[in-house]
Amino acid sequence: MLQPIVIVGGGAAGQAAAEALRRAGHEGSITLFSADPDLPCDRPNLSKYYLDGSASDDWVPLRPASFYEDQRIDLRLGMRVAAIDTARREVQLEDGSRHGFDALLLATGAEPVRLPLPGADLPHMRYLRSWADARALAAAAGTARQAVVISASFIGLEVAASLRKRGLRVHVVGRETALMERVLGTDVGAFLRRLHEQHGVVFHLGVTPETIDARGVLLSNGETLAADLVVIGVGVRPALALAEQAGLALDRGVTVDEYLQTSVPGIYAAGDIARWPDPHSSAPIRVAHWVVAQRLGQVAAHNMLGQRERFQMLPFFWTEQFDFGLAYVGHAEGFDQVVIDGDIDARDCRISYRRAGQELAAAFVHRDLEGLRTERAFENALAAAAPAPTTTRSTA
Question: Of 11, 287, 294, 9, which Cα lies nearest the Cα of 131?
Answer without folding.
Answer: 11
